[in-house]
Write a structure and sequence with these properties.
With 336 residues, this protein is mainly beta. The protein has one domain. The chain contains no helices and 42 strands. The strands form three sheets. It has a 15-stranded parallel β-sheet with strand order 1-3-6-9-12-15-18-21-24-27-30-33-36-39-42, with no helix packed on it. Strands 2-4-7-10-13-16-19-22-25-28-31-34-37-40 form a 14-stranded parallel β-sheet, with no helix packed on it. It is elongated and about 85 Å long. The N and C termini lie far apart (99 Å).
Length: 336
């Protein structure tokens, strides 16, 4: 085993690119792309990092994947500088492989970035999924964003049995970006999810925002919940654009959790529960097609509109707070 460092800018498979004229094999070598050097993995070439070895891109260095890069079996990709995955190229991290975008580091994905089978991705810097790019996380893969940001202009799928923690970090769904959450997302300690494009929590998906974290649907965004969303412990969901809770969806706010419907509209076909120790601000509209449960504090100058005669505004024990039958012409009382 050796540590092989780049000698100059060049292509991976050219001996002149490396100190000593030896093309590294990350199955048996640790590899360093030095500051100031750009190294390119050409089309039709695959590089595999495995068996506990490291591929490190130093600050000021650049790795460009035009072909393919595999990281697996405790291999580690450490991006301290910059990395680009070109359109049509592949980066696969799987079977206990690890990838890290360090603070100050940046990854740009125009092609495909797949995480699967107990893969780990840590983001302390910035990972950008460009328009046309895909990030897919599945089969017990794990994404950890600590103070960094995952920006999605293309597509991001967090599939079943896949997990993401946003610890003081952010997921930003940019305009044109499409994100599907079928796994579990835990957003905490000032973490944030910001929706300028489209984010869907599927019927298998779950998002929890706690400890001063926030989920924000911006005016240009679209937030659809088919699964479950929870805000608690000073966590908040702020709605400036359209948000839909589908028929089998659930939304809970409890223990100083906040639902703020500002200038946006929430269409509630599912289960919406504001617990006694939580807050509801209605500056826009909540349009209710079933029942709504409000035990906490409610304020604001907006509207709650009941779209079905059978729908009720209830407290946390299920008791109806308002009787609307007569407003619909039932049980009229003659007044002399």
């Amino acid at each position: 085993m050796a540590t092989i460092t780049s000698a100059q800018t060049g292509v991976w498979h050219d001996p002149a690119t490396w100190v000593g004229g030896i093309v590294p094999d990350p199955w048996v070598d640790d590899v360093v792309i030095a500051s100031g050097h750009n190294v390119v993995i050409l089309p039709s070439y695959y590089v595999s990092v495995a068996d506990g070895h490291f591929l490190t891109v130093q600050g000021g260095g650049l790795l460009i994947v035009v072909g393919g890069l595999d990281v697996f079996y405790y291999g580690w990709l450490d991006v301290q500088g910059d990395m680009g995955v070109i359109a049509g190229a592949w980066l696969d991290v799987y079977d206990d492989g690890n990838a890290t975008i360090d603070g100050g580091g940046t990854g740009n994905v125009e092609g495909y970035f797949d995480l699967e089978y107990y893969a780990y991705l840590d983001i302390y810097g910035q990972l950008i999924v460009e328009a046309g790019g895909w990030l897919s996380s599945w089969y017990d893969a794990y994404i950890y964003v600590d103070g960094g940001i995952l920006s999605v202009y293309g597509h991001f799928d967090l599939d079943d049995y896949s997990y993401m923690d946003l610890y003081s970090g952010a997921l930003s769904v940019e305009s044109g970006g499409v994100v599907d959450i079928s796994g579990y997302v835990y957003c905490y300690y000032y973490g944030g999810i910001y929706v300028y494009g489209e984010l869907t929590v599927t019927s298998y998906g779950y998002i929890e925002a706690v400890y001063s974290s926030e989920i924000t649907c911006e005016s240009s965004g679209l937030l659809t919940v088919d699964g479950y969303l929870l805000v608690a412990d000073d966590g908040s969901c702020r709605v400036y654009g359209p948000m839909t809770l589908s028929r089998y969806a659930g939304f809970d706010a409890w223990y100083w959790g906040y639902l703020e419907v500002n200038s946006g509209v929430v269409d509630d076909f599912g289960y919406l529960y504001i617990h006694y120790d939580a807050f509801l601000y209605v500056g826009g509209e909540i349009r209710v097609y079933k029942d709504i449960y409000i035990s906490g504090q409610m304020y604001g100058g907006g509207k709650i509109i009941m779209f079905r005669r059978e729908g009720q505004i209830r407290d946390g024990n299920g008791n109806s707070l308002f009787k609307l039958d007569q407003a619909y012409g039932h049980g009229q009382i003659a007044i002399a």
